[in-house]
Amino acid sequence: MEKRNAVILGASGLVGQRFCQMLSNHPYFNVIGLFGGWASDGKKLSDVLKLPDYCIPQSDLLSETINQLDIEKVKRIDPDIVFSALPNDLAMEAELELASHSIPVFTNASANRMRDDVPLVVPEVNSEFLDIVTEKDGYIVANGNCSSIGLALSLKPLLKYGMRDVNVTTFQAASGAGYPGIPSMDIMDNIIPYIRDEEEKMEKEIPKMFGSLESGRIKNSDVKVNPTCVRVPVRDSHLEVVSVTIHEEVTVEEVSEAFMNFRSHPQEINLPSAPEKPLILRKEENRPQPYLDSMAGYPVRARGMAATVGRLKISGKVIRYVTLSHNTIRGAAGGSVLNAELMFKRGMV
Amino acid sequence: MEKRNAVILGASGLVGQRFCQMLSNHPYFNVIGLFGGWASDGKKLSDVLKLPDYCIPQSDLLSETINQLDIEKVKRIDPDIVFSALPNDLAMEAELELASHSIPVFTNASANRMRDDVPLVVPEVNSEFLDIVTEKDGYIVANGNCSSIGLALSLKPLLKYGMRDVNVTTFQAASGAGYPGIPSMDIMDNIIPYIRDEEEKMEKEIPKMFGSLESGRIKNSDVKVNPTCVRVPVRDSHLEVVSVTIHEEVTVEEVSEAFMNFRSHPQEINLPSAPEKPLILRKEENRPQPYLDSMAGYPVRARGMAATVGRLKISGKVIRYVTLSHNTIRGAAGGSVLNAELMFKRGMV
Amino acid sequence: MEKRNAVILGASGLVGQRFCQMLSNHPYFNVIGLFGGWASDGKKLSDVLKLPDYCIPQSDLLSETINQLDIEKVKRIDPDIVFSALPNDLAMEAELELASHSIPVFTNASANRMRDDVPLVVPEVNSEFLDIVTEKDGYIVANGNCSSIGLALSLKPLLKYGMRDVNVTTFQAASGAGYPGIPSMDIMDNIIPYIRDEEEKMEKEIPKMFGSLESGRIKNSDVKVNPTCVRVPVRDSHLEVVSVTIHEEVTVEEVSEAFMNFRSHPQEINLPSAPEKPLILRKEENRPQPYLDSMAGYPVRARGMAATVGRLKISGKVIRYVTLSHNTIRGAAGGSVLNAELMFKRGMV
Amino acid sequence: MEKRNAVILGASGLVGQRFCQMLSNHPYFNVIGLFGGWASDGKKLSDVLKLPDYCIPQSDLLSETINQLDIEKVKRIDPDIVFSALPNDLAMEAELELASHSIPVFTNASANRMRDDVPLVVPEVNSEFLDIVTEKDGYIVANGNCSSIGLALSLKPLLKYGMRDVNVTTFQAASGAGYPGIPSMDIMDNIIPYIRDEEEKMEKEIPKMFGSLESGRIKNSDVKVNPTCVRVPVRDSHLEVVSVTIHEEVTVEEVSEAFMNFRSHPQEINLPSAPEKPLILRKEENRPQPYLDSMAGYPVRARGMAATVGRLKISGKVIRYVTLSHNTIRGAAGGSVLNAELMFKRGMV
Question: Total domain count for chain D?
């Protein structure tokens, strides 16, 4: 199939630059425009670089197509697909406007995430939600919140045991707050046991992600999530301590198998950014760790796309474990790229 | 009452130096000897300093009484009281030997902590356990593990609601592993979701701490603790995310009152290192934090001796909150100093 | 002498809160008003706390006198003295206005620091510059830049050797950039070898500080400073690697003596915030260090007011050493408090 | 040419694992044995992993050829080439033994680095030193100290201006101390202005590196290096603030050109791990930074092999700049790999 022309909105932010990284030399998409706040300041993308140079293709850095955020300009370029890393206050309107202009938008912003007509998709978890997009022209597909995505991946193989409620304490990296985000004075040698709106997002998103499709509408699951979200002095990746109450008793061996053997639709249809194994089970007692496991995922294009689980323990009907996933790759830009790859394969982009 | 002569064992370590700090100019105790590994290397205490100079009295730094760990020497000095920050492998035998030699030992080591004849005491929680020491001559009193003490303080006022089980995820500071402890390469920009033996300690200690005294013996409580212990890149203080299932329904107001009004025996008898309020309830949504709350506790001598609680939420019969306490002060040296002050007041030192 | 009424401008910032801390229970000054940006947001000072609670007196936290920045209001309160931690863009005009209204202003802002009629004073270095203030009513006295003050203190005892030029590489703490200051994403596990305007300040301030007073005007010294200013992931204190070319050859012993025996005017007249020894020479090969030496200074009120020097080496006519001082105490708020104490003693406040 | 069989000594350490990484799928070398301390403990390499999994080939992790350090075993395997990341106390004897057994040894250990018959080589700086190896059978080639290599790379293009003396202040990453290396309690939120033996190494190595070959012997240069070596809380890469006194006056433009156009022997003969540009000049005022520039070097196999320079300033005959290079790649394992590639091309391996 022919490559589709893509633009990235909000390309100067931490997630925007992960979009640049993941779309570089992409087999399905060809980036033709980067939009962000820097151009209006007379800067180049290389002036606002937040990732090491080798992450961003040189051509992007020098690109002539760098422009101010200007929805009219995006519409004139008329891309086949838009990736949005816009801040929430800009995202709501801009994304709806583009969708109404027959442009598919794959977004990391939370602004439109909970709308009834916007599928909130983690491809390994609920790719069937994409069915609610019936018209090829103009729609929004959202990835979830960074802390929800990693959790959802690890919960999916447990679903068969009858998941009742989920308690989760998160250890969230500073990059989750974007740029400039968290002042260094707040997080150096410190922990902040609160992240605005984060617990609310997890409480709402997990039930939507695990909902069912009934006559073309998503009906939320009644799973209950009790999150406590905490910011820690780590650059990338969210680690989550999870306990799940299920309906039956299972053994550590069974659950280990369930984690290890977990494969889903993106693996079956071999999407370019899909990791061979979406869940990597570590048996070492001291894993997962952000430094060692952030970039889990094979092959190279899927680095940072696998979640890692470890420290599995079961007592009665409670399964406890630790999971970790990269918050700006799998939990943000990579989530939307995978959604887009899936829609491309379906002929919907 | 006359001051008692004290020696500190293991004075070169992180906890040992907190003993030096807390016993400096102490109204009950007079440090006459510091024992540690440095003297055998021909060093002075100032050569192995792990706290800023002002924490340790100059007289200690220059002390002539600095000696190699040598239990015979301790016995010859014949102190009225010994504070032990010995590593576990040395502690078991040395402490028993000193106790059998009629010297009261107040220890932070875990080696003898779970013995039937050793009261495991957090004075605000279970000072009555000291009653099992009936002979003035020669005994061991242990403080708990750093992560157990902070948790126990916060649980005590909830006891009246009929505490059933406790789930806790910890965010533990690097100083908890002592010195040299955790290699910087393991914890810089990283999290380690495992601390050897830590979860086991919490599982055993909390039931002992909340046990009852029956005919002179401690009978463990049947409260069940499910801990996940995690190391984070913070220098001092353990933060813990706690959820407690109780027998009845209570309101946030009731529990807030219970936390705020909590006073116990050390406050009543006005021990020098006892904080006016052992629990400080923060209403700000983003507290407690290690940087801001580690040294909570008033007056000056009690800095680092109060635990801080925050983020109180209740759903049904589950109380959720975050607690924080200084791991090497309240959670280690300060815990034993408070125990010793209590025994001094009882005329048992 | 009677205590003077003081107000603090910019009290919600990192330096402003150090002013609160250093003026708490001060023997000369009585804080009657705190001005800052938080009041206009309907917040209390406790909501914008950037230091642990025990640093700031409870009375300040609850103070009724907390007000929006409003120079008219300051003038109506008519304090005997103003301490300014205003951001530069507000400082220039506000400070001149207050001074013209007969209020002495002691400022940490750089806005008016290089004016001819504003003495730039580090009391141990150039207290005689205060002589240019001849009228009791209305003036500005500035402390230097955080990186200049620590350097100047360490250079002063070397002056007698005929200081020619000074090369300095700084390791500057994140708190030097204020709040919110440096984004955590820029400095976690990272170093930034550039601080805007910092090198220029050092190049200009050191010659002014070491200038001479000629007919009531400050004539700059011709010492040449070559600084490279670098931000490092440390919360507090600036460490500086210094090499000074002098006119004669000296021995390590001579320079050690010069450092150790250094006392100056604030020590002679026994100012409350003056450290007994303004320079502390460490002979250990691995000192000074921010964690161990930031709060150097004795007695308690002078903590953080002494600079520490170490690693002294001399080859030919070049003296090399490392110095460290607390950037928001000695290098900012404490610098101005010491200036104010000196003027109080002179009867000029 | 046929691939050569290589073994890695000390493969469980930080530098050893960088050897594994850089030799994975290498066009010249085929790793047939990994030797390290873990095997004797009954562990696998994956149990002592200090880099993310994707850095080390799976085949290495599972390798049957993992063995205890056993020089006899190495000799029996009879590799064509040995890479040594041995600790110094083991390195001296083991490397000489292997060399005497006709095995070429490329070492990062400093033990034999200053021997007359051991070329100390940074290929872009002094590849001609390899000429002193005249016999193919059995020799040692050493890379320099991590802080010397980065400095040497940046000095090489300045040589033509008549380099007289070099002042350098280093900001060295924790990984430079190996594993377990620096205790986290020493370096969290802290700086240590001393690294044992490091300044001495730079003082000796730079003159040897810039020496000349006279009748088959290396005659040291008389350039004088004045280093102050400082440890900072950063995981990887050494940043160095350099000032060089030269014999003539040059312009910033000339020196910029010299940096940018610098190419040397490894680039000419196109060695696989040689970066296209060994020096990358950044014009942004706030570069180089460890986070952004550690992995500089193109193509992929040369990542971490380029040094980055920035902040170039010239006053009179003094050139000032900042340089940064990866301490365990270019400054250690990569240095030796590049040396080995050069000898392979010469037919000497």
Answer: 2
Looking at chain C, which residue has its C-alpha nearest residue D193? C286
Taking the CA of residue A183 and the nearest CA in chain C, the distance in Å comes to: 5
Which value, in Å, is the radius of gyration of the alpha carbons in chain A?
Answer: 19
Q: Tell me: do B189 and B314 sit in the same domain.
A: yes
Nearest CA-CA distance, residue B84 and chain D, Å: 21
Q: How many CB atoms lie within 10 A of CB A94?
A: 23
Do C114 and C213 fall into the same domain? no
Query: Tokens for C277?
Result: 């020894």
CATH number reported for the structural domain that contains residue D92 in this entry: 3.40.50.720
Looking at the structure, do residues D16 and D139 belong to the same domain, yes or no? yes
Beta strands in A163-237 (DSSP E): 165-172, 212-214, 217-219, 224-231
CB contact under 8 A, B192 and A286: yes
Q: Which of A20, A26, A229, A238 is catalytic?
A: A238
Does the pLDDT of residue A211 top 60, yes or no?
Answer: yes
Both C233 and C267 in a single domain? yes
Contact indicator for B150, B172 with CB cutoff of 8 Å: no
> Under an 8 A CB cutoff, do C232 and D232 touch?
yes
Give the closest of B49, B54, B292 to C52, CB-based: B292
Beta bridge partners of A83: A8, A106
Asked if pLDDT for residue C37 goes beyond 80, the answer is no
Cβ distance D295 to A189 less than 8 Å, yes or no, reads no
Cβ(A146)–Cβ(A228) below 8 Å = no
The alpha carbon of residue C240 is apart from the nearest alpha carbon of chain D, in Å, by 10
Closest CA to C139 of C165, C121, C158, C152: C121
Residues of chain A contacting residue C235, judged by C-beta atoms under 8 Å apart = 185, 188-189
Task: Output the average pLDDT for chain A.
Answer: 93
Q: How far is CA A336 from CA A22, A141, A325, D221, D344, in A?
A: 10, 8, 15, 58, 46
Is residue C266 domain-shared with residue C337, that is, in the same domain?
A: no
Distance CA A53, CA A72 (A): 30
B20 is catalytic: no
| Mutation to test the D interface, candidates C185, C190, C202, C322, most D Cβ within 10 Å | C190
Same domain as C167, residue C305: yes
CB-based contact B289 A193, cutoff 8 Å:
yes
**Which of C17, C53, C289 to mutate to test binding with chain B, by most B CBs within 10 Å of its CB?**
C53
The pLDDT of residue C99 is: 96
Residues B157 and B231 in one domain: yes
Question: Which amino acids of D are annotated catalytic?
Answer: 146, 238
Which single residue is written with the structure tokens 């009391």?
Answer: C123
Among B126, B200, B198, B199, residue whose Cα is nearest residue B156 = B126
Kindly determine whether residue C289 and residue D191, on different chains, have CB atoms separated by under 8 Å: yes
**Active-site position among C20, C26, C229, C238:** C238
Query: B269-312, pLDDT tens digit by residue?
Result: 999 999 999 999 999 999 999 999 999 999 999 999 999 999 99
CATH code at C253? Answer: 3.30.360.10
Comparing C-alpha atoms, which of C80, C99, C153, C170 is closest to residue C329? C153
Task: Give the distance from residue A326's alpha carbon to the nearest chain B alpha carbon, in angstroms.
Answer: 13
* Residue A166 sits in the same domain as residue A209: yes
Instruction: Determine phi and psi for A35, rounding to 5 degrees.
Output: -115, 135
Subunits adjacent to chain C (3 or more Cβ pairs under 8 Å): A, B, D
Do C258 and C277 meet the contact criterion of CB atoms below 8 Å apart? no
C82 has which bridge partners?
Answer: C7, C105
Which is the catalytic residue, given A20, A26, A146, A326? A146
Structural domain including C135 reads 4-144+333-345
CA distances from C61 to A192, C81, C292 (A): 21, 21, 29
Q: What confidence tier does B64 reach under pLDDT thresholds 50, 70, 90? A: very low
In chain C, residues with a C-beta closer than 8 Å to the C-beta of B298 are 54
